[in-house]
Amino acid sequence: MGRNNLKLILLKIISALAIFVAGCGSDEVTTEEENDSSVDEPVTLTIVSFVHDNHPLTRDVIPMWMEQIEEGTDGAVQLEWTGGPESIPTGEQFDAVSSGVADITFNTSSFYGHLMPESLSMLMSPYSPAEERENGYFDYLNSRHEEQNQVYLGRFLGPNPFYFWSNEQMKSLDDFENLNFRSNPTYHEILEELNTTVTDIEPGEVYTALDRNMVDGFGFTLMGPHEDGWTEVTRYIIDEPFLNQNGTILINKDTFESLPSDLQETMKDITAEFEKDMIDYFHAENETTWETIEAEGIERIELTDEDSERFQEIVHDVYWEMLERDAPDEIDNLRELLLDDEFDVTSIYE
């Protein structure tokens, strides 16, 4: 073989190697670019809620949070509200988020208290959400939810206490005795302590039950009964608010931790500010609701000071006895976090 032919062969080999190396380099750049673009693609998370999407407790609130999260993350997190109980039954939503079937739920601990009885202590907190973030209670709740593979982002129902509504004109607390009220787990044992007969009725059947005198009254927040038509067949509201709210925003822990750390922090910070917005929102909505139901003919019944004090003591004792019974391993922590001689749960209504 001549020297010229050898040079030609060597040049071809070098050229082929150069093309191969360039090709490999091109693949690496492409891969890096693809990885970069995948990071920039928005993540879509699904939301389910404990009530339907047109309910006054959710119809404005959830879209407000969604908008703030999407804007605050510059679109990196997109949210899809798939619906309420018609999407996933309320009692199954907590498990659905734990397992990853849904990413986020706007729920209340009343519907998963049988799995996490300590979460019902939220109803007895005398503190604002901001105070709970400072005194350790928020961190406590998050640690307990994490054991269920969920991250507790915060509250969403604001100062929105419960009331008892009735078709009987009560003159004293003793008049609860022998009446029949539609109940739910939130105030079931309170009514029993008042010697009231309790009946479990699905929300969609409450109007008919009231209209046909199957029950004498029910418990609920101020918002909701008017929109659901219950006030058409109800005459009185006992103006004695009780309990804090226990609305929770929960996200699947694996899903949350798969997000970049800056997005996690952004979602936490936005929710903390959102809690403050909810206080103003529900104060305004409750004032409007009072005007609406009174214009509709609903009469307020006010308890005497003595009955008011007795009623709040019943609520307090029932819940702490229930927590001691159902969450014995957590009761000392809860007492340390929530019991304060200077405050009681009614302070949050102001």
Short account of what is shown:
The chain has eleven helices and eleven strands. It is an alpha/beta fold.
Give your account of this protein's structure.
The model is unreliable at 1-39 (pLDDT under 50). Helix 2 links the parallel strand 1 and strand 2 (77-83). 46% of the residues lie in helices and 17% in strands. It is built from eleven helices and eleven strands. The chain folds into two domains: 41-159 and 245-284, Bacterial extracellular solute-binding protein, family 7 (D-Maltodextrin-Binding Protein, domain 2, 3-Layer(aba) Sandwich); 162-244 and 289-329, D-Maltodextrin-Binding Protein, domain 2. By secondary structure, it is of the alpha/beta class. The strands form two sheets. It has a six-stranded mixed β-sheet with strand order 7-6-8-5-9-11. Helix 2 packs antiparallel against helix 9 (261-295). The radius of gyration is 28 Å and the shape is globular.
User: How are helices and strands ordered from N to C?
Assistant: HEHEHEHHEEEHEHEEEHHEHH
CATH hierarchy: architecture of the largest domain:
3-Layer(aba) Sandwich
Helix % is: 40-55%
How would a crystallographer describe the biggest sheet?
A: 6 strands, mixed
Q: CATH topology of the largest domain, anyone? A: D-Maltodextrin-Binding Protein, domain 2
Number of helix segments? 11
Name of the CATH class of the largest domain = Alpha Beta
| Quaternary structure | single chain
Question: CA-to-CA gap between the ends?
Answer: 101 Å
Count of distinct structural domains: 2
Rough shape?
globular
Family: Belongs to the bacterial solute-binding protein 7 family.
Pfam family, one: DctP
Signal peptide: 1-18
Organism: Salicibibacter kimchii
